[in-house]
Amino acid sequence: MELDEKFNLLITLTQKIRSYDKHLIDTVSFYDNKMSSIVYDYYPFEVEIRDNNLYFFIITNRSEKKMLFSSSLNTDFDKLCDSLIKCIMTDVKKQIPKKFLKAKGFL
Fold first, then answer.
1. Is residue 71 classed as helix, strand or coil in its secondary structure?
2. Residue-wise pLDDT tens digits, 22-51
3. Distance between CA 77 and CA 62 in Å, rounded?
4. Handedness of CA 89, 15, 44, 51 (dihedral sign)
5. Taking the CA of residue 24 as centre, how many other CA atoms within 13 Å lie in the half-sphere pointing to its CB?
6. In a designed cystine with 37, which of 8, 28, 54, 79 is the match (CB 3.0 to 4.6 A)?
C-alpha cells in the first residue's frame, strides 16, 4: 500500500469516528503511516498501518504503548471502522476513571 493510500485511509477513518461522535477524538495529526490524537480527552492514541494491518494503541505514559485493536486491511472497511469504534467505546472507556468521564459528560 502506497503512502498516499495509507494517508487517505487514515483520513477516512478519522471522518468515520467523528461522524459517530464528534467529541470522541480531538485534533488529529498525521505522519508517515500513522495518525495520533486523544480519545475521550484523556488517552493519547495512535493508529498505525504496517504490513497490511491497522493497529490501534493507547499511550499510557511517554514511552509505553498498549495495543488494543488490530485488523487486516483486507477486512471490509466499514466493518473495520465499526470494530475500532466499538473498541474505543468499550475497551478504552473501561480504563478511564468514571469520575473523569462523568465530569467531561461522557457518561
1. strand
2. 888 888 898 888 899 998 888 899 999 988
3. 31
4. positive
5. 19
6. 28
